[in-house]
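Pipeline run #58 for the internal structure catalog. This entry was flagged by the ingest filter as a single-chain record with no existing model, so it goes straight to prediction. Upstream metadata was stripped on purpose; only the residue string is passed forward. Reviewer on rotation: M.T. Logging verbosity set to normal.
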Amino acid sequence: MTFYCSHSSSLCGALAKNCAVSMDSGSTPDLASIFNAASEFASYPGVVNEAAAKEFVDRYPLHVLLRVLQMEVDEPRLKETIVACLERISRTRYGSSTLLQCVFSQQETIKQKESEFQQDKSHFEEFIQRNTQKMNAIREMTIKHEKKCISQREQIKSLEEQVKNLNSLLKDSKEKLKTDTELFDSFVASASEL
């Protein structure tokens, strides 16, 4: 993305570098040093010139100052001092260009993060949908398996009942055969006596 800048192109490049660093990256800034420098800069008498604003921003980049404004700090005057300092910086051409550049840079970062978030969200939704389909397929297979098991149990019970009935018939047949054999033997014995 290209931004209008009334300064030389090398200066605009430096502005872009100044704001390109993420506001939440890096180590914890030296708050005492920032407070002292911002206090001195904010209370400087007279109009701030371009060189002074550039020197201050080079020493304490805007992303660092903006990060300090987001931090929980013990010094109650630190944030108001930084705000006063930023107001003075914004009154210079260099400062207003730098602040504007930071705003645009942060907007681009936010758009990029939003795009990444949307992609991640889309991938997550696809993942959930795929796994939901798999889970539904597994659930259907489980239900079919349970129905098959129930059917097989019923078949086994039916077979057990048939075996029981066959055993009962076999027992009855054996008893009848025994009785018939005894009758036949008795008949043969009676016939041989005649």
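catalog note: The two ends are 131 Å apart (CA to CA).
catalog note: Residues 93-193 form the longest helix (101 residues).
status: ready for reviewer M.T.
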